[in-house]
Specification:
This protein is mostly helical. It has nine helices and no strands. α1 runs antiparallel to α2. It is elongated, with a radius of gyration of 32 Å. The relative contact order is 0.05.
């Protein structure tokens, strides 16, 4: 007897196999088609959302440049409400925070900044938000909170700004040596990036003069005693 199937036997085997697995194959094939269609729709939807968010952000920046606060709030709130998961919404929150600060609405500014610092998908925006929160605390003389917030900034690109702000905080609290140390760190970091900062050097010299004056006064007081 031949070990090979005849064409009729092969056809019968195929029919039998198809009857057994046709439903499963149809389901799998349908799932693949639906998955591909769903992915294409998702891509189209994401592109559409991104385009809409980008346009709204452009309008926001034009309004901000024109100092049209009403339109700034309108476009910012639109971005936050309709495109809250995009970086454009985070950028809108940063703009709103500036607006709140200019109107001395510090709690609202802090709320907007805090959201970005904790939730943004873009690390750079999180770092910027943390620095601005620190500045807000420093302006309100909440120096310990400001320093604590600065400790959250880890990106080396922002260290010159961080150390300069630390220097300003130490200077404001009369800690002149700490201020000098922070300013010098900022100067070194700026130089590492191939730049210079005359203003930082002026701040450092001013702190050195104040530290020397404080030391001289201390010596004079001790001698008088």
């Amino acid at each position: 007897m031949s070990v090979y199937m005849t064409e009729e036997e092969q056809l019968a085997a195929i029919k039998k196999w198809w009857q057994r697995y046709s439903t499963l194959i149809t389901v799998i094939f349908s799932c693949v088609l639906l998955g591909a269609s769903g992915y294409k729709y998702w891509q189209w939807h994401q592109e559409k959302v991104t385009s809409q968010a980008s346009n709204a952000y452009e309008y926001l920046m034009v309004a901000y440049a024109d100092h049209d606060n009403k339109r700034v709030k309108s476009y910012a709130n639109q971005l936050i409400t309709e495109h809250g998961s995009t970086v454009y919404a985070d950028a809108a929150r940063l703009i709103l925070a500036k607006l709140y600060v200019s109107h001395e609405k510090y709690d609202q500014a802090a709320e907007s900044l805090d959201y970005v610092a904790k939730n943004s998908r873009m690390k750079a925006l999180k770092q910027v938000a943390a620095i601005r929160i620190a500045r807000l605390h420093a302006a309100q003389k909440n120096y310990d909170k400001a320093l604590s917030e600065l400790s959250q900034v880890t990106d080396s690109a922002y260290l010159p700004v961080v150390n300069e702000l630390k220097g300003d905080i130490y200077a404001a609290t009369g800690q002149y040596q700490q201020a000098i140390g922070s300013y010098r760190q900022a100067i070194n970091e700026v130089r590492t990036q191939g730049m210079g900062n005359l203003y930082l050097e002026m701040k450092t010299n001013e702190m050195a003069a104040l530290a020397q004056s404080a030391a001289d006064n201390k010596v004079s007081s001790s001698a008088a005693a």
